[in-house]
Amino acid sequence: MNNSDTSPMNKTGNKLPGLFSFLLSQLKPRGSMFTVFNMISIPVMLAGVVILYIRFTQGLGATTNLSQANPWGIWIGFDVVTGVAFAGGAYIVTFAVYIMKMDKFHPIVRATVLNGFLAYMFYAGALVFDLGRPWNVINPIIGNSFGYNSVLFLVAWHFMLYMLAELIEFSPAIMEWLGWKRARRIAKGLTLAAVIFGVSLSTLHQSGLGALFLMAKPKIHPLWYSEFLPVLFLVSSVFSGISMVILESSISHKVFKMQLGPDSHRKLDEIIIGLARGAALALFVYYFFKALIFVHDGQWALINDGWGLWYLLEIIGFVLVPMVLYAYGARHRAVGIIKIAAGMSLVGILLNRLNISVIAFNWNVADVYVPHWAEIVVTLTVVFAEIWLFRFIVHRMPVLREPGKIGSPNRERELRSLN
Amino acid sequence: MDRRDFLKLSGAVGATLMGAEAKAAQSDPDAPEFLGVLVDTTRCIGCRSCEVACGTENSMLVPDVANDGALDNLRTTDEKQWTVVNKFDTSKGDVFVKRQCMHCWQPACTAACLTNAMAKTELGPVTWDGDKCMGCRFCMLSCPFDVPKFEYDSWNPKIQKCSLCHQRTSVGGTPACVEACPTDAIMFGNKRDLMEIARTRIYNHPDDYVHKIYGEYEAGGTGWLYLSAVPFEEIGFRTDLGTTPYPEFTKDFLYSVPLVLLGAPALLAGLSQMSGSSDEDDESEVHGE
Fold first, then answer.
1. Are B46 and B200 in contact (CB under 8 A)?
2. What would the pLDDT profile of A73-108 be if each residue is shown by its tens digit?
3. Chain A residues with CB inside 8 Å of B130's CB?
4. Boundaries of every domain in chain A
5. Cβ contact (<8 Å) for A188 and B112?
6. pTM for the full model?
7. What angle separates helix A106-119 from helix A264-296, to the nearest 10 degrees?
8. CATH classification for the domain delimited by A67-418, as one of 1.20.1440.20, 3.40.30.10, 1.20.1740.10, 1.20.1630.10
9. Inter-chain residue contact B137 with A203, CB threshold 8 Å
10. What is the Cα–Cα distance from B247 to B26, expressed in whole angstroms?
11. Which residues contact A198 (CB under 8 A, 6 or more apart)?
12. Phi (first) and psi of residue B29, to 5 degrees
C-alpha cells in the first residue's frame, strides 16, 4: 500500500525513469480482487468485448435489434442521451462552487467532476460502437466536411470541448498525484475559465440532445414531442445531475469511507439536503413546463389510451412524486427520503429519455424495437468500465480525501505538489 | 358556374399563386429550378420496369418481376432496392404507387448530417458520399419519409437511397426508372414545369384526379410529385407531415447557439466576480476545507 516509497522522484536524479516506475507501481491493484462487484462485472465485460468484436466484424445487425424503422436503439437512447443527462451534476456543482462560491459543496466537487468526465468519456465514447463507419468519425473534427447546420455536429463538438474543460477542472488532482508543483499551480489557475467554458457548453449540449429529436416530429408520440424539447432537456438535466450526485456521493462515502475524515458523514448530509432543495426547485420548474405544454397543446384527448397512462406514470410517478419527496426531505432533513427521491427522479429521466428516443419513437409503426441482449451487455460493459476507472482513480489520486493527508498512498508526492 | 362563383374562384387561385410567388421571391430568384419527377399514379400499370432499371443502373438488387409476387405485400425501399412499386386496393380499383427518395427542396437528412455526406446538389438530387459518412443514422431518424436505409449486415455499411441517378442527371441524362417506364407514368423535368403539367392534367380531367399534388408543399416541397385518383392516405402517403421544411424545426435552436456561447460566459464571469472573494486561489487551495 505504500507505493510512494518504491518510487522516490529524487530531485537530483533522472526524472523520467522515476516517473515511469511510479506509474508502473500505480497499476498494482488495491484491495481484494474477489469482491461481489468484480465477480459480476468481469464476466460481463469479457462478454462485452466478444460482442463488440462480432459487431465490428459482422455489422450492427449481428448484435443489435436495430432496423430500418428504428435506426437508434439503447446505445444512443440510454448510453448517450440518458447517460449525459445523468452526468449533468458536474456542471451544476462546478457552477455552485466556482461561480456562486457555495463552499458547502466543495468536498464533492472533485468526485463529481471526475464522474462527469468519465461519464462523457465512456457514454459519449460508446457512440463509436453505434457508428456504422466509425473510421470517418474524424471527419467533423478535422474539418474536411463541417456540417454546421446539423444539431449532431454541435453536440459532437460540445462533447469534445466539454470533456477538455472537465479534464482541466480535474487536472489539479492529477498534478498532486504526480507531485508536480508548477503544473498544479497552472492547472489551478485555469479552473475558473474551464468552469465558465464548461457550464456554457453544458447548457448547449444538454439542450442539444433534445434538439436532436426536433426533426423526428412525425415519429414521436405527440405527448413526448414538443418544439420545446431543448428547454425540457436542459431543465431536466439539472435535477437529473443533482440526483446522480446525491446517489453517487452516498455510495462513494460508503465504499471509500477509509479515505474520509470523521465528520465527513455529517457534512455529506448537509450537502445532500442543500442539493435536495435545488432538485425540488428544478423538478417544479420542469413539471410546470410540462403542464404548460400539455395544456397549451390541448393534449387532453391523448391521455385516454395506454400511451396516456404511460405518460401520466412518467409525469406524476417520477416527476411530481419525487418533487414532493425532495421538498419534504429537505424541509424535515430526512436524508433517507431524499435518496429515494433521487432514485425516483433518475428513473423518471430514464423513462423520459427512452420514451423520446426508443419507446414512444415510432409508436405508430408496426416494427417495434426491443433491445437485443447483446446491446444490454455492451451497455453494462460501458457502465462497469466507467466504475472500474473511477475506482482506480479514487484509490490513487486525492479525489475524495484531501491531498497530503496522512495514510494516503502517495502522500509524499502530494505534499511536494502543495508546497 | 355563374359569374359570381367564377370571380370567387379566380380570386382564390390568384391569392394562392401570389402566396406561392411571395414564397419563391424570398429565396434566390435566380436560383435554377431544381429537378424532379412527376408520378401519375393513374397511369402506372405496376409492371415494375422501374425497379429493374434502377437495380441494373445502380448495381442494386434486380428483382425477378415475373415470379417474386412482390406486389402481394406492401414493401418499403430497403438497403437492397432504392425504389419499389406497391399495389393498393382502393375505392377506384387497384392503384400502383412507385416510392423512392422524394428529393426534398430542403431535406431533413442533409440538415441532420454532421459531415455533409448527405448533400443536396445544385441541380436537385440528394446524394450520399461514403467517404464522409460516419454511419450515425441521424438522417434516417430525421427523414419524414423514412427513405435512407442502412446496411446492418455489413462491417462496412452504406446508407442506401435513390440518388435520382445523379451520374446520369448531372450530365443532362434522364433517371433510369423514367427511361424504363412504358406508360409515361413517371416524367422527368424541373419542378416548375412538372407542376404546370400536373395542374394541367387536373384542370383538363377534374374528375380523374383528387385536386392535390402530393409533394407540392409536403415537408416544404419535394422534387418528386404525385398525382392520384384517390385521396393520398389510401395509397400509403402520410398527409400529416406539414408544409414546413424540416430543417426549420432546428433553426431556432441553432441560431441560439452563438448567442449562448457569447452571452453565457460573460454572464458566468460576471456572476463569479460578484460572488467572489478576492483570495479565491488560496481559498480553494486544499479542497474539502
1. no
2. 999 999 999 999 999 999 999 999 999 999 999 999
3. 133
4. 67-418
5. no
6. 0.88
7. 60
8. 1.20.1630.10
9. no
10. 16
11. A90, A91, A94, A162, A165, A166, A169
12. -70, -25
What DSSP designation does B95 have? E
Residue pair A86/A349 in contact (Cβ under 8 Å)? The answer is yes
B185 neighbors B43 (Cβ within 8 angstroms):
yes
Does B18 have pLDDT greater than 70? no
**Domain B32-245, CATH class in plain words:** alpha beta
Q: What is the pLDDT of residues A120-178, one digit of tens each?
A: 999 888 889 999 999 998 888 776 678 888 999 999 899 999 999 999 999 999 999 88
pLDDT digits (tens, 9 = 90+) for B199-240: 999 999 999 999 999 999 999 999 999 999 999 999 999 999
The whole-number pLDDT of residue B32 equals: 61
- Between chains, do B286 and A418 touch, taking CB under 8 Å as contact? yes
CA-based nearest residue in chain A for residue B241: A218
What is the domain partition of chain B in residue ranges? Answer: 32-245
pLDDT above 70 coverage of chain A, percent: 95
Contact present, A99 and B272 (Cβ < 8 Å): yes
Give the one of B136, B250, B275 whose C-beta lies nearest to A214's C-beta: B250
* Residue in B114, B241, B281 closest to A150 by CB: B114
C-alpha cell at A91: 456542471
Candidates B210, B253, B200; CA nearest to B232 is B210
Q: pLDDT (tens digit, 9 = 90+) per residue, A8-45?
A: 444 444 556 678 888 888 888 877 778 888 899 999 99
For B138, the closest of A101, A152, A227 (CB atoms) is A152
